[in-house]
Structure to design on (413 residues):
């Protein structure tokens, strides 16, 4: 099936029509957990794009030599290797963010997006389309991550990337930050709203 | 006493689903009926109870900075902690293979209904997450690791069984707006349950 898709579709479909988070329902854990602030969300998005693109390419290159019975372990080892590189890089160059993300960088290994794309796409396709698929899905994931983080930081703390955007006059007039948005459950509600909007636009995705 | 406290806290306060959102993928995908949900919940609990102590020992005697001191003092300042992700996931993946073979032999019906999700327990974030939290929090002994693993597993089991029961009802009795059907409403239900679970915050024995 994938052979018939043009490179353009492979790259752009994951942005909305076949988004990994809200349509394929993969990788929810990190979407919910790292999105209280915009900055860690962006770093997390970039890390996932990098790991996904490279693991897709590597698996695609060696796909004909992997015995099917141990493929999950092989995939895990490739992904784990890449994640270790990313996490050491973050510790070296962006220590504050890596402390905020805590275990969630390590959890990229078990991010279902990776296994999902490796199984569904990289095992059956040549390296170049696999690379595009990895980058596309990574960007689709990062988009959702940033949307959720944008609303949670804006409504929850009145800041964006640490800068105050809600003017002081609002607070003087009685506006209060919505502390609920910082709490974990609100992330689920924000994602549910995104799903609602997205499925209203793409009616074919609705469940009967 | 401390272990009991950690056990209770892991079930209610540090609940894997409602406080950390770990294991959401299978949580959302396998929660359509109670029986399958219960089976997966038990499998996850079992995996956590086994893998956490094994990874604890691995962490204490091999990976931590200075952990290799028992080999002789020339190894005392070796720090292998960068290997921990790879070793933890290898332990978990091989344990999963074991559980998979056991379930296939003793309960073929459960095996058939869990389908693809049994091998995917290996990539269930709740299990790797448990090991990583264990590493981060410096648990005192292997029994602490066991009780935390059991607590997290039971907490996950409770959450997935409860949401499956609710979803069964929602599917047959309520009129959900089209775009929210299926996944959307499950997100909102999980959020509401999460808010309810937050009332356990600060519980202590």
């Amino acid at each position: 099936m994938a052979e018939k898709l043009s490179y353009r579709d492979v790259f752009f479909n994951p942005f909305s029509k076949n988004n990994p988070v809200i349509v394929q329902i993969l990788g929810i854990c990190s979407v919910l957990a790292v999105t209280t602030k915009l900055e860690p969300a962006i770093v997390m998005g970039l890390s996932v794009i990098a790991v996904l693109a490279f693991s897709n390419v590597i698996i695609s290159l060696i796909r004909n030599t992997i015995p099917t019975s141990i493929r999950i372990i092989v995939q895990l080892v490739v992904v784990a290797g890449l994640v270790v590189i990313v996490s050491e890089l973050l510790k070296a160059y962006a220590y504050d963010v890596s402390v905020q993300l805590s275990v969630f960088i390590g959890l990229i290994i078990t991010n279902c997006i990776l296994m999902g794309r490796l199984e569904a796409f990289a095992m059956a396709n040549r390296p170049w389309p696999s690379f595009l698929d990895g980058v596309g899905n990574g960007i689709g994931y990062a988009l959702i991550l940033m949307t959720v983080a944008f609303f949670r930081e804006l409504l929850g703390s009145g800041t964006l990337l640490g800068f105050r955007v809600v003017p002081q006059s609002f607070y003087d007039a009685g506006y209060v930050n919505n502390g609920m948005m910082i709490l974990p459950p609100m992330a689920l509600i924000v994602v549910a709203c995104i799903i609602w909007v997205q499925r209203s636009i793409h009616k074919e995705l609705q469940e009967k | 006493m401390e272990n009991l406290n950690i056990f209770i806290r892991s079930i209610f306060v540090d609940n894997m689903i409602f406080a950390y959102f770990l294991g959401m993928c299978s949580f959302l995908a396998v929660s359509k009926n109670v029986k399958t949900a219960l089976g997966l919940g038990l499998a996850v609990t079992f995996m956590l109870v086994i893998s956490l102590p094994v990874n604890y020992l691995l962490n204490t005697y091999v990976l931590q900075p200075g952990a290799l001191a028992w080999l002789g003092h020339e190894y005392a300042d070796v720090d292998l902690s960068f290997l921990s992700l790879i070793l933890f996931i290898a332990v978990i993946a091989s344990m999963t293979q074991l559980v998979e073979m056991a379930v296939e032999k003793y309960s073929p019906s459960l095996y058939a209904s869990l389908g693809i999700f049994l091998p995917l327990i290996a990539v269930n974030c709740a299990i790797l997450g448990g090991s990583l939290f264990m590493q981060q929090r410096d648990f005192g002994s292997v029994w602490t690791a066991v009780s935390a693993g059991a607590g997290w597993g039971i907490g996950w089991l409770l959450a997935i069984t409860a949401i499956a029961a609710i979803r069964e009802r929602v599917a047959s009795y309520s009129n959900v707006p089209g775009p929210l059907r299926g996944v959307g409403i499950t997100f909102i239900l999980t959020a509401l349950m999460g808010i309810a679970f937050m009332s356990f915050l600060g519980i202590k024995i």
Chain A has nine helices and two strands. Residues 127-157 of chain A form the longest helix (31 residues).
